[in-house]
Amino acid sequence: MRATLYLTRNGLLEPLGQSQVLAYLRGLSREYRITLITYEKNEDRADEARMASARAECEALGIRWLPQKFRPQPKVIAPALSMLRMAWLVRREVRRRGVRLIHARSYIPAAVALVVGRMTGVPFIFDMRALWPEELITAGRVRRGSLLHRAIVAAERACLRRAAAVVSLTHAAAEYLNRLYPKEMAGRTVVVIPTCADLDRYVPPLGKPGTRVVGCLGTVLSGWFRMDWLASFLAVAARRDPGVLFEITTRDDPEQVRALVAADPAVWSRLDVAPCPADRVQEVLQGQFVSVMFYAGGEVSELGRSPTRMAEILGCGMPVVANDGVGDVAAIIREHRVGVLAEGPAPHQMEAAWEALEALLADPDLSARCRRTAERIFSLSAGTRAYGRIYAGLINGDGPCAD
Asked: What region holds the Glycosyltransferase subfamily 4-like N-terminal domain (predicted)?
């Protein structure tokens, strides 16, 4: 079997590590001998049972898993030191294992793969995931034009130019990159693979839930989630439906989340904020009738966003309430009629979104249509096959292909 290396700064025990890393590698490991390098947070490393379970699954799949310790602090120094350690580790694995291809998930791994690739001649996939420089600006973590911002943009440009293949989550981001970097992108095909979901797990419930529950899934304290929109929508829902309950399923600090979204007493008394193990997320979704996700739409950063939660929600046969300007989200909602787009955070705008949602829920084909849309766009098996074609094309010398 041909040896490949998958490099990510996410942890395998994180929800994204399970749904967007291991989920694809389960299929790819049938054809490739994979070494997986991840960066695990302290709280996950401390969970010995889950670490052992993840290690056992990797061994069963023939995946050589090398979990590293994630160090977030000091802010700039820690990632820099991490890159040096990562580069040494990747170079060692390339030489020892005869690695033919490096799959780099996001920017720092791609920069490392670029450096190691120049030293060893091993090609790499720049799996962008999102437009990270713009995400950092939107979240207020980096100032546009600063030394750090210029360095990240330079790395982005170099990775786009040198990568053997580029993968984008959205068509909107691919179009943006072609406009921003016409020279680097000339003649280059960007393969679009959205965040996919295991649709064997994320399925509609057998029966309708007895209680109407409005859900919100995933991190909301990231800096690029619109908490004011979420608070406004929940307040309108509480007024319009006295029996509705609210669930925010997140690993974020619950008290901080409550303080930001539950100023309305009617929301506070009916709101549950709690984490959920990755293997039980589908059970939470199956108990809801709609899920809400509001990102910083309209920002350049959001062109590259393909929310994992959207794939999982639609797979469960449930519509979404979202906003425009977020990757391909609005286009999917409009084309397939699988949700509602809120126009703004004002009460009258959220009232309009609630009324549109109630009208949509009256459509008897809604759940089946949500499921069909998930199968068409977000199928994990289709995404895995697309990655497999890229792997085969690069290792065989034919170039990337996702068709």
From this structure: 21-191
